[in-house]
Amino acid sequence: MSTTIDVSVRAEAIGSDPMAVVEEISGWLSTPAEEVDREFACELDRLRIAVSVMNSDAAAGDRRAHYCQQLLLARIYQLTMQIPEQPTAEGSVVVHEVMRLLEAATLAAEDDRIEPGILDQAPAQPKAYLSWLKGTARAHRVFKHPYYQDFIKDHATVDDLRNYVMQESVVDGRFDDLLAMMQVGTSGGAKMEIATNFWDEMGNGNQAEVHTHLFNKIFEVFEITSAELEAGLSANALLSGNLAVLLSRYRTFYAEAVGFLGMTEWLVPDRFVQVVKAWERLGLPDVGIVYHRLHITVDAQHAAGWFHNVVIPAASSPAMRRGMMRGALWRLNSSCRYLDERMPTTDR
Amino acid sequence: MSTTIDVSVRAEAIGSDPMAVVEEISGWLSTPAEEVDREFACELDRLRIAVSVMNSDAAAGDRRAHYCQQLLLARIYQLTMQIPEQPTAEGSVVVHEVMRLLEAATLAAEDDRIEPGILDQAPAQPKAYLSWLKGTARAHRVFKHPYYQDFIKDHATVDDLRNYVMQESVVDGRFDDLLAMMQVGTSGGAKMEIATNFWDEMGNGNQAEVHTHLFNKIFEVFEITSAELEAGLSANALLSGNLAVLLSRYRTFYAEAVGFLGMTEWLVPDRFVQVVKAWERLGLPDVGIVYHRLHITVDAQHAAGWFHNVVIPAASSPAMRRGMMRGALWRLNSSCRYLDERMPTTDR
């Protein structure tokens, strides 16, 4: 947070390859937090600039910088999403500051993509607000995206589907934990709705029907390893996972998380119908598609419950209306870029 | 994290009243994080010293410093446990660093109270480990503490009970959220056990039986307001709540959270039997005791399930064995100090 930075430090940082910055900071993540803060605090001025350069390059359209930005944020988030076997840098002040720079840039990039003025158009009456939110989503290019409606349904190969589930794992593979995190501090009907979704994800208490367990069956069908997984994720897949974690972990982003995760569940059924068609077309093992079949039904119910019990009661607050729409648009826009990128030939 | 600090800054900080430090930092918590980091980063050197002085005074036995330390940490934790109506300082780098200083001092104080060498005595065989852990707890002064066995059961007045539930609210009033947080990143049987506990806290989907809702009925019986609540909490009650949040929010403390929350649930039934006796003795409204009656049964089941499905499978790892016992001892010791303090005449 220093305001004066040595010119030579600045020059050195600007010259760094963003991947070198990612690897340098990643190297600390398996070091205990106190040690990181003792040993590497002296590196903070340089890193603050290096990460800021990465962020501004990403904002200017540099794809490598964007990838590095999201990869580093995803690795930092793993500290808060996985139980480690050894002490980690979780909680480190140095890592926290780097993370905050990455988060601020990630959110600013999403806000820049929201059409100016749209958040001010939200109707004040809760039911009218919900109709408007759904109408905006239905009119969005992502709503019936050709990636699902055409490519996945009719053309995707086994390898395409394999790649598809890898990219989806950043949200689907830990949806239960995202729900658990985002419900902290809620009460009443909203808490019960989110808790019910969580319990459904837990197979309503039946170990064999836990959704993340079913999702992992697909990984077994395709023999995907965790090492392969990280290396195979695109910048926009990493971004989808990072946005979901970011919004779920901060109480100040509760409204945005409601919009983001609600939209995620609402878009699922129609998408997964196409995935099931592809699975059947390719004759893949039935055990691997249970998860998708289940979510065609369950997510339609979840989205309806979410809208009725979480969105509508919250929509009496202007700040909540604005936040929920902001989160919904972050999901629609980021999902659209992600699907565009995954098309074999794009119209971008 | 600067290593050189101006002498006059140090002198100024040492002279500060700890409550003035608490109020200064508390004043920022309702300011957006980016603004706090922009405006108050320049205060960080001074505050780092002021908080360190507060921490060392607390460690040396200064009760006021200890109270201030735990009050400030509790207020910072509220940012991560409550959904705000306005933007807050949640995530602020400055606040994060202050929080880390408070957390480190809080944990060091608990570790100092663990008998040297005890963690090395843990048997390696999982079932023997569990017996040893329970045996250590049974031999602990807190196990049949006279606060419950004598004072609550036979002597407590309505006002004593009223004060009792206020102090307990820091854990009981948000046990569902603590479980939701501490299960992030788990899988298999451990995840299911914690999720089942969470779902029980949610009344298994029945709004009227949500445990935090039932707990709040007691608050209604006693007409306790949230303003009165914070002012009424003792340092050791604040500490109990802070330890529970601290251990639940970090993945690196998963083992400690298992020990801490498992011990919390295991101690409940025998304690609540005494609370129910007091309630009946005083002829208080029945609606306010449903929560305690329920937990006499349900927490006995939870503790058994927790030991069997979370502790025993984890106990094959030496690091987990050590962490779980550490967390269990933190609970036993901190609960004992808290109960000692609450006795009308103490034998300290």
Automatic annotation (TrEMBL), chains A, B:
Keyword Oxidoreductase: yes
Source species, domain of life: Bacteria
Protein keywords: Oxidoreductase
InterPro entries membership: Haem_Oase-like_multi-hlx, PqqC-like
Protein name stated in the entry: Iron-containing redox enzyme
